[in-house]
Design brief:
This protein has 342 residues and is an alpha+beta fold. The chain has 13 helices and seven strands. It is elongated. Its EC number is 2.7.7.65. Residues 196-325 form the GGDEF domain.
Length: 342
């Protein structure tokens, strides 16, 4: 539970508002019922139930965009109604709403909600003792909204930068192993739900250490960057490439098996053979391929691809080895022999 709150910023804001609503609004609702102020009590209760319902929806579905918007509308409209029903004391509830809207929904909607809330109170006018108080309140509300906008905007930019640093390999610009783990989990879940085939390819540059030792790490880095570019140019937009570590990469191929998978792998092998170069000559790679089995865990899937890659390296390099050759070739309607680099 705490992990989700730590990793999902908007969900944490919704949860915080729900906790504040339970602890902060409930006593006022009870007090107003006891005082016989039924309209104010009903307003407080409606706000409380609305925020808690949005939290439940966000938690169950993971859709924090819609639930965040719903909470923003609830708290702003609720604050306006409280100001109208209760009067001057109810105005103070609008200030925290003006701040949190920018963290619950996008900036444009938050600005519209904040302006609409202040204008609605000004048009009604019943919550203010004088015009001076009304315009003073409007000015302070504008300042609070402007400060909240600036802070929320900078916070959003910083979170995006941190997420980029945490999920992208700085050398090649592709997703790193952390992203790979998440995407493989999603792929396995989608395969179970839809029956869509998924192929996992582990590829390793042959004799990469020798390239680094003889020509320097700068040349080695250039080889990695060049290979990533070639793979990007020769795979589909739906395919995903990850840097697994060092000179090892993982390619996730959705919706391909059998003849299609064999053709894709042959093409990638030929492309790397033809275009991958370094000062000492051509560069090749070894491939281990595994099709996801029904009900298989991601760890097992990855282990089978890794074992196939190990076999490709041990049996001569510049080879494509399928973890389950018979199953793959049955789908292709061909031979079960591993693909050779010869």
């Amino acid at each position: 539970m705490f992990h989700r709150l730590k990793t999902d910023f908007r969900l944490s804001i919704i949860a915080l508002l729900a906790a504040c609503a339970v602890l902060g609004i409930t006593p006022f609702a009870v007090m107003r019922y006891l005082q016989g102020n039924l309209p104010a009590g009903l307003v407080d209760t409606s706000i409380l139930l609305g925020i808690c319902s949005a939290l439940v929806y966000a938690w169950v579905t993971g859709d924090t965009r819609r639930s965040g918007l719903a909470v923003a509308v609830i708290i702003c409209s609720g604050a306006v109604v409280v100001g109208v029903v209760v009067g001057e004391p109810g105005l103070f509830w609008l200030y925290p709403c003006l701040v949190t809207t920018f963290f619950l929904t996008n900036a444009r909607i938050a600005v519209v909600l904040n302006i609409a809330s202040v204008v609605a109170l000004m048009v009604h006018g019943g919550a203010f003792r004088s015009d001076i108080q009304m315009w003073s309140f409007s000015a302070t509300a504008l300042v609070v909204s402007a400060c909240a906008y600036v802070f929320a905007h900078r916070n959003h930019d910083q979170r995006e930068r941190l997420e980029h640093l945490a999920t992208i390999d700085p050398l090649t610009g592709i997703k790193n192993r952390r992203s790979m783990d998440q995407e493989l989990d999603l792929a396995a879940a989608n395969a179970e739900r839809t029956g869509l085939p998924y192929a996992l390819v582990l590829l390793d540059i042959d004799h990469f250490k020798k390239i680094n030792d003889e020509h320097g790490h700068g040349v080695g880095d250039d080889v990695l960057i060049e290979m990533v570019e070639l793979l990007r140019q020769n795979t589909r937009k739906s395919d995903q490439l990850f840097r697994f570590g060092g000179e090892e990469f993982v390619l996730l191929l959705p919706g391909v098996d059998g003849i299609g998978l064999k053709a894709v792998m042959n093409n990638l092998q030929q492309v790397l053979r033809k275009y991958m170069k370094h000062p000492g000559g051509s560069v090749t790679a070894s491939f281990g391929v595994a099709l996801l089995k029904h009900g298989e865990s991601v760890a097992s899937w990855l282990d089978r691809a890794d074992a196939a890659l190990y076999e490709a390296k041990e049996t001569g390099r510049d080879r494509i080895v399928f973890a389950d050759a018979q199953r793959t070739m049955d789908r292709a309607g061909g031979s079960a022999e591993p693909l050779s680099g010869a």
